[in-house]
Amino acid sequence: MALFPIAQIKAHSLTGRITPSLLLAAFKAVQRNRGAAGIDKVSLNMFAANLAQNLLALEHDLKRGSYQPLPLRRKFLDKGGGKFRPLGIPAVRDRVAQEVVRRLLTPIFEPLFHPSSFGFRPGRNCHQALEEAIAIHEQGFRVILDADIVGFFDNLSQTLIKEAVAAQVADGNILNLVEKFLRAGVMEEGVFKPTTIDTPQGGVISPLLANIVLNHLDWQLAQLGYRFVRYADDFIVLCQTKAQAEEAQTQVTHILNQLGLQLSPEKTRITTYGQGYSFLGFVIASRSKRMRPKSQEKFKDKVRELTVRSRNLDASLIVKLNRVIRGTANYFTPRWSTNRSRFRHLDAWIRRRLRCLKYKRFSYHHNRRMRLKQFAKLGLLRLESFCWS
Predict the structure, then answer these.
(1) pLDDT in tens, 207-253
(2) For position 81, what pLDDT does the model report?
(3) Helices and strands per DSSP (H, E), number in the chain
């Protein structure tokens, strides 16, 4: 039995849908997401300076089959604990090309995805995934298989991706483009490294391709009668008893093996709603839904970068700091969160950092020299105020 059943009617003639308006919309989407330049060192502003000609040339290459992506620029993202996640940054031109293909493929695969998949899908987000998990808990599913896939993108087979896309798409040019994206390679410290087995992480189209492959896992779990919530490669299976969770772990292991993937023995665990578990930046438990310690440390690291004592306490610093505060607060203050006490302590910590920055040293006497109303006059946002709103 094929992992990805072939559709009776495949999508074809997708290349003909590559139009100037689609290319322009794709560029605007890439522009909104910002991002650094690729190995060609062409930034978004540089690409936009000659936008009409750049998009016309890209359209020509995509339709004629002469398009060839540049290797990705390797960047390592600090995950904490001395671990780094390798990312590949495509050139702006390649990001636009990937966005074009993503927009062509999404309407084909979106109706096929399982309702319990929330990652990188139109109209879906992390909060909805978390709310779904909480709702299932309230229905009596209080034992959790907290699953973790070993090196998901490093082990995600290009062959399986091409097979899954080809099961629904008959346009050979689009299939060739997907293969070119996968095989673009990366430049790491000036050395070209081919990507012939793994899947580059960081591309515009990578999340969609991951969903297409993991859709097999979703429907297999659903057919076995399991309740689950998945956001990209991060997922949990919710059960009523420990025995059910242990059986779910066995089934998940078997299904992932079919995809050439494995569960991490160290990070995969069975826990309960009462004990709590980490999911999408939160620690979810029956008595609290709070910011997980790792997320708190990431937030603090961002604040530390902005509040080193060599800087000046001025309006531009407050603007940058408010941007970090607002982004964190908006994510960690849904209606069901219990972060107020934690945010109160973080607010006090931020003010202490700013006092040290202003007076170039730490002293408790500075609390009297720079009081709360002075921070309010500067326009500094408070995390806790988002809980009230």
Answers:
(1) 999 999 999 999 999 999 999 999 999 999 999 999 999 999 999 99
(2) 64
(3) 16, 11
Written as six digits, the tokens of 208 are: 């969609």
Alpha-carbon gap, residue 185 to 157, rounded angstroms = 15
> CB count, 10 Å around CB of 273?
21
With residue 164 as reference, give the H or E element that holds it.
Answer: helix 158-166
pLDDT value at residue 153: 84
DSSP assignment of 94-145, as one string?
HHHHHHHHHHHHHHHHGGGS-TTB-TT-TT--HHHHHHHHHHHHHTT--EEE
The predicted structure's pLDDT at residue 366: 63
Helix, coil or strand: residue 26: helix
Q: Residue 156 in contact with residue 201, Cβ under 8 Å?
A: no
Q: For the chain, which residues score pLDDT lower than 50?
A: none
* pLDDT value of position 79: 66
- Which residue is associated with the tokens 């097979």? 163
Q: Does this model's pTM top 0.85?
A: yes
Question: Among candidates 95, 15, 89, which has minimal Cα distance to 54?
Answer: 95
Strands 269-272 and 186-188: unpaired
The one-letter amino acid code at 116 reads: S
Is residue 273 within 8 Å of 138, Cβ to Cβ? no
Token reading at 291: 């910011």
For the chain, the distance separating the N- and C-terminal CA atoms, rounded to the nearest angstrom, is 53
The long-range contacts involving 115-118, CB below 8 angstroms and separated by at least 24 positions, are 116/218, 116/222, 116/227, 116/228, 116/229, 116/230, 117/211, 117/214, 117/215, 117/218, 117/230, 117/231, 118/229, 118/230, 118/231
3-state SS, one letter per residue, for 317-382: HHHHHHHHHHHHHHHHCCCCCCCHHHHHHHHHHHHHHHHHHHHCCCCCCHHHHCCHHHHHHHCCCC
